[in-house]
């Protein structure tokens, strides 16, 4: 359920837990296992490891994701590895090639994912239904917990709370999960009290951690931001399970730093009226919801988190129009709300052909077109793209694009397209392009690729337009709605020019904004709008002064654009400041070579 724009940076910076692990690391367990047993091809996909109070267990599952056998592999009392006694035991290969062992172990860890792997390291017990109960029992009554232990306990409380409502993590206990009513409110009084008890324990632990060390690093942000995000997580959960009134009781004043709130307002300002804007992580989702809920700001915009789009209750809440937004239409069949559905890009039958949205809708609505794979319904689609009708009267950017069908490109390299992709496609088509579809730039590139021919920058967001921009690629730069974006940057945005842009929690937002600025300036020059280019070039350093984040490699490529705009004084000032930043060690370089290359570029531009 939880994802964030900060994940990659976070995992690189996350401190090693200070407590003594109950069991060896998951890396050590997989290394020993795969050096001992020679698995058949792809067999590691049907294996699970569980770190329990008495040691590690190996679990073998079948293709329906059901447990076939559970055997103890490591005993933490004797500190010994045990023999796997399955009837279909794999070949013992103690003397196998070390390279093959590493490859198998790495394949398993890659399949596991970074978040799961880190959870094994952070928690004393992990990887099985109800692990959070054992962690709570292990730490709840202990005094003087370290920051790492307190964070792990808070995560266990958080998982315990949501596991009462749904099995998002696949670790919820079936016998303890609530039987909920359809619609809102879903919980009865007793169930709500039980959920809130776990949620409030989680928030209390995070508040203690925030008060003790606001900058303590969690995988999803510093403790100060993590506390706010976790409170907003409870708010959003209650919003689609229980209703807005119950959810609002979890809002507090001044939950976020001014920097995050100014960003959130600017993102919402960038969205057309009644738009749907897609977010991906925690801080980019929750801050937008926070300013909507506490300031009644741009509540006509519906904020969607892609991590939750597979949840039927969440999708239904979005369709009703949260806060004061207008309701949305949908064409998805009703069974999409009760079954896990995937659309499979069938590589064997794949061809560079299209299917109309109307025909796809018909095929997706027919249960006979699916087949069951494990616990998922799969629809094989042998087409490269889907053509979307564009209703008469829909505004195009360019007149010569009128009456050309829009085209959604199947993301074939992933094999599967999850329901989230088609839910967004459905929202655009079913609402006949009357509700603009936008993406925050923090959204994963994989979420953007199907739309790449139809994306433009509008302010700080990517907007889907009916024009087919065939030379447009999401990974290489997105064409602008230049006039609208310029007016947003210059007249509508409000900038925080005092908050320091720290690498861990704020830098991703900052980098996307500078990228947007660079591409806008490039487009203004290409369109020969020199006056606007000059105005923007001279303003940009005031919006993002060197005092909040040292101008660096990202800024060096703005210097030629400033000069082309006629802003020579601005260009020279930025160039000199970058050189000074390098001399005074104000810029962090991953490699010494990067310092040399930046200085070389400074010298080139001076001449």
Q: What is the strand content?
A: 5-15%
**Tally of helical segments:** 22
Q: Unreliable segments (pLDDT under 50, ≥5 consecutive)?
A: 1-18, 91-95
Helix/strand structural class: alpha/beta
Number of strands: 21
> In whole angstroms, how far apart are the ends?
52 Å
Which geometry do the CA atoms define? globular
The strand order across the widest sheet is: 10-9-18-20-19-21
Q: Averaging pLDDT over every residue, what do you get?
A: 87
The largest sheet is:
6 strands, mixed
- Radius of gyration using CA atoms only: 26 Å
Percent helix: 40-55%
Relevant terms:
607 residues; alpha/beta; 6-stranded mixed beta sheet; 4-stranded antiparallel beta sheet; 22 helices; 14% strand; globular
Q: Outline of this structure?
A:
With 607 residues, this protein is an alpha/beta fold.
Describe how the helices and strands are arranged.
Elements: H1 7-13, H2 26-36, E1 37-38, E2 47-52, E3 55-61, E4 67-75, E5 80-81, E6 91-92, H3 98-112, H4 114-122, H5 131-139, H6 147-163, H7 189-212, E7 217-218, E8 221-222, H8 223-241, H9 244-248, H10 258-269, E9 276-279, H11 283-295, E10 302-305, H12 312-320, E11 341-344, E12 351-356, H13 357-364, E13 371-373, E14 376-380, E15 383-388, E16 406-409, E17 416-418, H14 419-430, E18 437-439, H15 445-448, E19 455-458, E20 461-464, E21 479-480, H16 482-492, H17 507-526, H18 530-543, H19 553-556, H20 559-564, H21 568-583, H22 592-606
Helix pairs in contact: 2-3, 5-6, 6-7, 7-8, 8-11, 10-11, 17-18, 21-22
């Amino acid at each position: 359920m939880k994802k964030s724009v900060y994940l990659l940076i976070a995992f690189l910076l996350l401190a090693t837990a200070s407590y003594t692990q109950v069991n060896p690391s998951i890396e050590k367990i997989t290394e020993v296992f795969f050096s001992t047993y020679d698995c058949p091809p792809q067999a590691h996909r049907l294996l699970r490891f569980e770190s329990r109070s008495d040691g590690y267990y190996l679990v073998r599952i079948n293709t329906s994701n059901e447990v076939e056998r559970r055997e103890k592999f490591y005993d933490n009392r004797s500190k010994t590895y045990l023999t796997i006694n399955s009837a279909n035991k794999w070949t013992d290969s103690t003397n196998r090639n070390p390279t093959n062992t590493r490859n198998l172990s790495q394949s398993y860890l890659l399949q596991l994912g970074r978040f799961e792997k880190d959870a094994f390291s952070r928690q004393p017990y992990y990887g099985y239904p109800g692990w959070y109960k054992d962690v709570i029992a292990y730490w709840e009554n202990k005094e003087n917990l370290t920051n790492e232990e307190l964070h792990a306990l808070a995560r266990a409380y958080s998982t315990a709370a949501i596991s009462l409502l749904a099995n998002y993590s696949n670790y919820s206990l079936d016998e303890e999960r609530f039987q909920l009513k359809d619609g809102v409110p879903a919980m009865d009084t007793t169930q709500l009290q039980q959920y809130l008890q776990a949620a409030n324990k989680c928030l209390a632990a995070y508040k203690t951690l925030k008060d003790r060390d606001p900058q303590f690093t969690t995988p999803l942000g510093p403790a100060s931001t993590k506390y706010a995000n976790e409170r907003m997580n409870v708010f959003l959960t209650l919003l689609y399970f229980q209703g807005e009134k119950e959810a609002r009781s979890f809002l507090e004043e001044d939950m976020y730093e001014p920097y995050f709130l100014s960003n959130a307002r600017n993102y919402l300002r960038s969205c057309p009226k009644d738009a749907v804007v897609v977010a991906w992580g925690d801080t980019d989702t929750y801050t937008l919801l926070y300013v909507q809920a506490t300031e009644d700001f741009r509540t006509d915009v519906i904020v969607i988190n892609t991590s939750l789009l597979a949840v039927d209750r969440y999708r239904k809440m979005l369709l009703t129009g949260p806060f004061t937004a207008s309701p949305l239409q949908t064409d998805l069949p009703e069974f999409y709300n009760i079954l896990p559905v995937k659309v499979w890009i069938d590589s064997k039958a794949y061809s560079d052909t299209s299917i109309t949205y109307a025909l796809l809708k018909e095929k997706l609505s027919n249960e006979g077109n699916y087949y069951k794979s494990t616990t998922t319904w799969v629809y094989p689609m042998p087409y490269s793209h889907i053509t979307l009708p564009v209703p008469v009267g829909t505004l195009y950017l360019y007149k010569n694009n009128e009456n050309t069908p829009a085209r959604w490109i199947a993301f074939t390299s992933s094999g599967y397209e999850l329901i989230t992709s088609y839910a967004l496609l459905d929202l655009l088509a079913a609402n006949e392009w009357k509700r603009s579809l936008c993406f925050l730039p923090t959204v994963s590139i994989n979420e953007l690729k199907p739309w790449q021919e139809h994306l433009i920058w509008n302010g700080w967001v990517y907007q889907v337009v009916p024009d087919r921009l065939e030379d447009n690629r999401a990974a290489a730069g997105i064409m602008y709605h230049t006039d609208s974006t310029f007016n947003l940057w210059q007249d509508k945005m409000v900038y925080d020019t005092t908050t320091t842009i720290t690498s861990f929690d704020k830098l991703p937002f900052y980098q996307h904004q500078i990228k947007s600025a660079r591409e806008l300036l490039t487009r203004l020059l290409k369109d020969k709008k020199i006056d606007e280019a000059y105005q923007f070039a001279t303003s940009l350093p005031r919006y993002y002064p060197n005092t909040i984040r040292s101008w660096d490699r990202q800024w060096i490529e703005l210097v030629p654009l400033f000069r082309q705009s006629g802003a020579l004084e601005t260009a020279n000032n930025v160039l000199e400041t970058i050189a000074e930043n390098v001399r005074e060690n104000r810029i962090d370089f991953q490699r010494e070579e990067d310092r040399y290359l930046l200085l070389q570029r400074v010298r080139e531009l001076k001449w």
